[in-house]
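tool=predict chain=A
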Amino acid sequence: MPGLGTSFGRGGATTAQQDLANADCILIEGSSLADYVVHFTNASCILREDFRDTDEGTAGFFSGWNEQQRAYDKETWFYEGHPDLSFPERDLTLQHPRCVFQTLRRHFARYTPDMVEKICGISPALFHKVADAVMLRFKDRPISRRSTTPCPATW
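tool=predict ok
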């Protein structure tokens, strides 16, 4: 709940915008909330065998793309599991090759500093400079004084 921002010890995965004022550094990228990812997201859910990522599907589209309707049929996006059960098959180790975590990992592996330059126009040197600046900001600070705020959903 965004109203309970990280200043109050809650909401680490739902950063409240007013909490940005308390951050020493704001990194618009993501975060590492391992327990949260495993237990409270779909990362451990196993995708069906017929799901295809953009590099595996047709012409850069995910599976289920219907060119005539210019829309997706999301049937292949469902999770593996028994149809009579309301919960999907999961891998809490996140190692299964079809779990959402591994699928996303493969999908985003292509976004290297060179790809960032190709798509966004940000040079690899600038990308590394920003990453280094974030890390240098924390180099000599104790853990209690490292308050980077990730903003993965900005407009």
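The CA atoms of residues 94 and 102 lie 7 Å apart. The longest helix spans residues 124-138.
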